[in-house]
Recover the amino acids of this structure.
C-alpha cells in the first residue's frame, strides 16, 4: 500500500535523529579532552570513583571551563537552529535567520549602550551588559512584529519590518562605536564577534531556560507544514497564519535573546542548520525541527572545539569558524543535492 | 449526509472596492454548483467567504445551520475542503506527505492508523496511489491538481470547494478531473462548488449554475437557463451563439462593441 513507503521513510528519519543524538555526548567528550591541557575524562572519572584522588588542575579545567563551555555550545547551537527553522517556516523564506527580526542588532545595541555609556536597566559590569542586550533584543523583535501587525502579518511585512529595525539598531551601534574610547571600543568589538569562552554554570542555567522556551515551537509543526501551501490553503486546513507567525517569532526571539545576550551574535548556525536538516530529513517540520536542533548543537560545538584547538593556544572567534567550516560544507551539499529544497 | 450551504447577503470590500455586493445563494447538498462570470466578478472571493478564509463585511454563511465564521477553524477544516487555483510553485514534499497535510485538522503530532487509511483512500479516489513516494515538484500539472484534490479529500469533508480546477490543464486532464469531481459528488454525497472559466465544461459538469457580474448574482438556475445569448452578452460583453443539440455548446462570435 502507499502508506508503506511513508512508514519506511519515517523510520529512516527516526534513525537519522537517533544517530545525531548519539553524536552529542561524543562531541562533548572530545571537547573535554582536547585543549592546551590534554585531559583524559575517563581517567578522571575513574580516579574520582575509585577514590585515588585526581589532578586538581585537570578537574578545574574540565569542571569550570570545558564542560560548561561544551554544554553552552550545544544549547546555543540548538536554540539558534530551532529559531531558524521556525522563522524560515513561518515566514516561508529560505534567507531568514534568527537574526532577521533584529534580535542580534538589538542585543548589540543594548550591549554597546552598557559598554560605552554605562547606561542600562539593572546591575553593573557584565550583568548590565547581559541585561541590556536581552532587553534590547526583545525590544527590536517586538518593534518589528508590531509594525508587521499593521500590515496583517504577511511574511513580506514581517521580514521588511525586521530588516528596517535591524538597520536602525545597527546605526545606533555604529554611532556608539564612533564615540567610544579606545578600550571601550576594544571590548565592544570583542563582544560583537560572539564567543562562548565566558560560559559558566550560572549562564548555563539561563541557556537551559531558553532551551525550554523552544519546546512550545514543536506544537506548531503541523501549522508550519500547512503554511508551505500558502496562507489561504493553510487557513482552510484550520491553521491561523498570523497566530503561527507571531508565536514562532515571539518564542524564537525570547530564546535567541537569552542566548545572544551572553554569547554575542553567533552567525550562520541558525541559517545553515535548518537547510542541512532539510537535505537530510525533508521538509516535514515534525522531523525537521528536532533534526535542525541536533545539527545546530553539533555544528556549534564542533566549531567551538576547532576555534579552541586549531591555533592553540590562541583562540579564534567561534563565529569565524562556523562560517569557514560551514560555508564550504553547505555549498557542497547544496550542489550535490538532487532536488531543490527551496524555490 | 449531504449538507446545505446558505449564503445570506454577504458583501466584501477590498480597499474601498466592493468585491462582493450582497450575494445570497444556496448550495444544495450532493449537487455540483458552478460559479461563472468574468475575471474580477468575485468568484474566488465568494469561495473564500464560504470556507471562512475571508470574513465578509456584511452577511453570513451557514453550513447546515451553523455560522461558518463562528465555527472553530479545525472543525470547519474537517467539514470543508478547498482546492486552490494556484498550487505553490514549489513544495518540497512527497505526494504522500502533501496529501497528509489534509489531516492537519485531525492530528496533533503523529499520523495514526485512521489517518494513514484516510490518506490512502483519498489518493485512491483520485488515482494517484502509484505516485505516493514521488516528490510533488516532479509532477505534471494534471498530477499536481489531483494531489491538491486528494489533500482536500483527506480532510474527509462534506463540502468541496474548487477554484478553477481545470485551468492550466489539457483537454484530457480537464475531463478526467471533472469526471472525478462528479463521481465524488455522486458517490460520497459531497456538496461541490467550483469556480469555472470554461462555460462549456461548466455546463456539462454542473447541476446548478450561478452567474456573477461585478460582485452580484446575475442569474441562477440550470446551465441551460443561465447560459443564454442575452446573459452572455450582458455579463461578458460577448456575442455568442448557443447551440443546444445534442450538448449545450457556446460559440463565442465576437466582442460586443
Amino acid at each position: 500500500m502507499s502508506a508503506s513507503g511513508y512508514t519506511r521513510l519515517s523510520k529512516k528519519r527516526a534513525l537519522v535523529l537517533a544517530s545525531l543524538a548519539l553524536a552529542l555526548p561524543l562531541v562533548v567528550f572530545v571537547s573535554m579532552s582536547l585543549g592546551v591541557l590534554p585531559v583524559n575524562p575517563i581517567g578522571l572519572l575513574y580516579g574520582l570513583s575509585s577514590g585515588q584522588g585526581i589532578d586538581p588542575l585537570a578537574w578545574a579545567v574540565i569542571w569550570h571551563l570545558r564542560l560548561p563551555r561544551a554544554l553552552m555550545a550545544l544549547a546555543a547551537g540548538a536554540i539558534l537552529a530551532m529559531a531558524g527553522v521556525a522563522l524560515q517556516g513561518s515566514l516561508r523564506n529560505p534567507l531568514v535567520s534568527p537574526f532577521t527580526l533584529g534580535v542580534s542588532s538589538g542585543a548589540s545595541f543594548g550591549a554597546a549602550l552598557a559598554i560605552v555609556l554605562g547606561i542600562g536597566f539593572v546591575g553593573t559590569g557584565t550583568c548590565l551588559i547581559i541585561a541590556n542586550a536581552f532587553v534590547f533584543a526583545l525590544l527590536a523583535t517586538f518593534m518589528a512584529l508590531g509594525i508587521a501587525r499593521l500590515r496583517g502579518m504577511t511574511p513580506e511585512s514581517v521580514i521588511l519590518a525586521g530588516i528596517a529595525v535591524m538597520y536602525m539598531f545597527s546605526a545606533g551601534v555604529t554611532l556608539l562605536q564612533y564615540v567610544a574610547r579606545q578600550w571601550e571600543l576594544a571590548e565592544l568589538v570583542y563582544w560583537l564577534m560572539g564567543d562562548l569562552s565566558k560560559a559558566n554554570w550560572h549562564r548555563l542555567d539561563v541557556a537551559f531556560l531558553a532551551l525550554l522556551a523552544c519546546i512550545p515551537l514543536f506544537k506548531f509543526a503541523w501549522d508550519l507544514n500547512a503554511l508551505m501551501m500558502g496562507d489561504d490553503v493553510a487557513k482552510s486546513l484550520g491553521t491561523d497564519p498570523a497566530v503561527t507567525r507571531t508565536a514562532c517569532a515571539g518564542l524564537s526571539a525570547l530564546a535567541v535573546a537569552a542566548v545572544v545576550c551572553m554569547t554575542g551574535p553567533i552567525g550562520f548556525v541558525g541559517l545553515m542548520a535548518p537547510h542541512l536538516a532539510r537535505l537530510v530529513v525533508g521538509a516535514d517540520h515534525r522531523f525537521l525541527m528536532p533534526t535542525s536542533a541536533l545539527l545546530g548543537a553539533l555544528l556549534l560545538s564542533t566549531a567551538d572545539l576547532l576555534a579552541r584547538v586549531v591555533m592553540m593556544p590562541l583562540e579564534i572567534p567561534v563565529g569565524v569558524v562556523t562560517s569557514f567550516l560551514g560555508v564550504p560544507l553547505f555549498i557542497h551539499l547544496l550542489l550535490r543535492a538532487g532536488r531543490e529544497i527551496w524555490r | 449526509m449531504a449538507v446545505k450551504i446558505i449564503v445570506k447577503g454577504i458583501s466584501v470590500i477590498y480597499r474601498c472596492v466592493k468585491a462582493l455586493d450582497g450575494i445570497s445563494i444556496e448550495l444544495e447538498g450532493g449537487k455540483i454548483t458552478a460559479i461563472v462570470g468574468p475575471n474580477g466578478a468575485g468568484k474566488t472571493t465568494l469561495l473564500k467567504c464560504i470556507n471562512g478564509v475571508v470574513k465578509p463585511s456584511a452577511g453570513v454563511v451557514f453550513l447546515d445551520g451553523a455560522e461558518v465564521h463562528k465555527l472553530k477553524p479545525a472543525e470547519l477544516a474537517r467539514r470543508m475542503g478547498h482546492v486552490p487555483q494556484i498550487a505553490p510553485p514549489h513544495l518540497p514534499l512527497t505526494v504522500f506527505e502533501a496529501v497528509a497535510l489534509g489531516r492537519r485538522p485531525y492530528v496533533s503530532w503523529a499520523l495514526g492508523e485512521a489517518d494513514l487509511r484516510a490518506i490512502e483512500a483519498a489518493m485512491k479516489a483520485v488515482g494517484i496511489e502509484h505516485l505516493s513516494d514521488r516528490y510533488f515538484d516532479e509532477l505534471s500539472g494534471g498530477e499536481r491538481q489531483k494531489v491538491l484534490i486528494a489533500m482536500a479529500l483527506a480532510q474527509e469533508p462534506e463540502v468541496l470547494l474548487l477554484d478553477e480546477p481545470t485551468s492550466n490543464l489539457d483537454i484530457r486532464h480537464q475531463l478526467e478531473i471533472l469526471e472525478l469531481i462528479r463521481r465524488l459528488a455522486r458517490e460520497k454525497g459531497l456538496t461541490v462548488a467550483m469556480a469555472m472559466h470554461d462555460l462549456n465544461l461548466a455546463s456539462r459538469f454542473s447541476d446548478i449554475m450561478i452567474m456573477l457580474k461585478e460582485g452580484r448574482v446575475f442569474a441562477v438556475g440550470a446551465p441551460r437557463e443561465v447560459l443564454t445569448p442575452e446573459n452572455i452578452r450582458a455579463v461578458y460583453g460577448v456575442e455568442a451563439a448557443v447551440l443546444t443539440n445534442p450538448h449545450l455548446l457556446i460559440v463565442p462570435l465576437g466582442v460586443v462593441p
